[in-house]
Specification:
Elements (H helix, E strand, L loop, with lengths): L1 H14 L5 E2 L11 E8 L13 E8 L2 E5 L3 E4 L1 E11 L2 E11 L4 E9 L2 E4 L3 E4 L3 E4 L1
Parallel strand pairs: 1-5, 2-8
Antiparallel strand pairs: 2-5, 3-4, 3-6, 6-7, 8-9, 8-10, 10-11
Length: 135
């Protein structure tokens, strides 16, 4: 019962909105001056026996600096190498995404779960928080 309460609390807090982790020095900047890296689960492509919570996605490194989080990451425009890990049970897989970020854009790293494994789709640009365009 305690685990159920903790799970519901986490889901409730995540529904309240998330703040991006800032990956640059100095004060926060507006979205017109920054880009965002988001971690997504493609629920439409999950096997039926997997719930979205069974597939975990975590960032590991950004431009060779450790940044272990499952939150969005706010970055400045420029070239990036991003390493992410997906996990289903005891299986995990890492992938590297290299891209040139532009301000006011949201880059999506999307994971899919199949059976007891997971994999990443290509890096995408999130447009209007509604659709993905592969890069």
């Amino acid at each position: 019962m305690k685990n159920l309460f903790v799970l519901l609390a986490i889901i409730g807090l995540s529904a309240c909105g998330s703040t991006a982790i800032q990956f640059y020095d100095g004060p926060s900047k507006s979205s017109n001056e920054t880009a965002t890296i988001s971690l997504w689960t493609d629920a439409s492509e999950l096997d039926e026996e997997l719930s979205p919570s069974a597939l975990q996605i975590t960032s590991l490194k950004l431009n060779d600096k450790d940044i272990i989080t499952n939150s969005d990451i706010s970055i400045l425009a420029g070239e990036y190498s991003f390493i992410a890990k997906c996990t289903v049970g005891s299986f995990s897989k890492t992938s590297t995404f290299n891209f040139d970020a532009s301000s006011n854009k949201n880059y999506a790293v999307t994971a899919v779960g199949r059976g007891k494994e997971c994999y990443f789709k290509k890096l995408s640009l999130l447009v209007d928080n509604a659709r993905f365009v592969e890069l």
